[in-house]
């Protein structure tokens, strides 16, 4: 399976701007720039997209772990917070902090912990990231 996205950029790094488009069309000339990445201007940025990918991948992996163990979640909600830090003259993604809130009927805490940790370690995006990954999990 191969998934594709395209980036287009015009101008300098700081004053230029670009857009991102995915083959699925979910992103279609979505703007990004220095200002959307570092100054909170409206638009997206690579770290936000990685956060969405990690949250989505982990949550789906957990749903499969739960299904295999015979559990059906009422809800799984995950936030991923990506840390972009100075690294010499450049920047590096240093951490992805996952925060999970799960509602799963008849699931005990020990089994929940085991399944969530397996999902975090096995999710393809977790395996891709060369960064610290933390998982804060709550079973309601």
Summarize the structure.
The chain has 140 residues and is α+β, with helices and mostly antiparallel strands. The chain has helices spanning 34-38, 46-68, 109-122, 124-128, and strands at 5-10, 17-22, 30-33, 75-87, 90-103, 132-139.
Structure explained in plain terms:
By secondary structure, this protein is of the alpha+beta class. The protein has 2 domains: 5-38, no CATH class; 46-139, 2-Layer Sandwich (GMP Synthetase, Chain A, domain 3). The chain is 34% helix and 36% strand. The protein has 4 helices and 6 strands. The strands form 2 sheets. The protein has a 3-stranded antiparallel sheet with strand order 1-2-3. The protein is elongated.
Detail the topology: elements first, then pairings.
Layout lengths: L4 E6 L6 E6 L7 E4 H5 L7 H23 L6 E13 L2 E14 L5 H14 L1 H5 L3 E8 L1
Parallel strand pairs: 5-6
Antiparallel strand pairs: 1-2, 2-3, 4-5
Helix pairs in contact: 2-3
């Amino acid at each position: 399976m191969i998934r594709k996205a395209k980036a287009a950029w015009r101008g300098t790094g700081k004053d230029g701007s670009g857009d991102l488009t995915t083959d699925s069309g979910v992103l279609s000339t979505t703007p990004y720039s220095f200002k959307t990445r570092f100054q909170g201007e409206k638009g997206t940025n690579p770290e936000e997209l990685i956060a969405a990918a990690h949250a989505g991948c982990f949550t789906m992996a957990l749903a499969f772990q739960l299904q295999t163990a015979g559990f059906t979640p009422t809800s799984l909600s995950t936030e991923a917070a990506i840390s972009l830090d100075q690294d010499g003259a450049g920047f590096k993604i240093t951490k992805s902090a996952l925060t999970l809130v799960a509602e799963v009927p008849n699931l005990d805490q020990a089994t929940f912990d085991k399944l969530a940790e397996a999902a975090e370690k096995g999710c393809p995006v977790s395996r891709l990231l060369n960064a610290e990954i933390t998982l804060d999990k709550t079973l309601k």
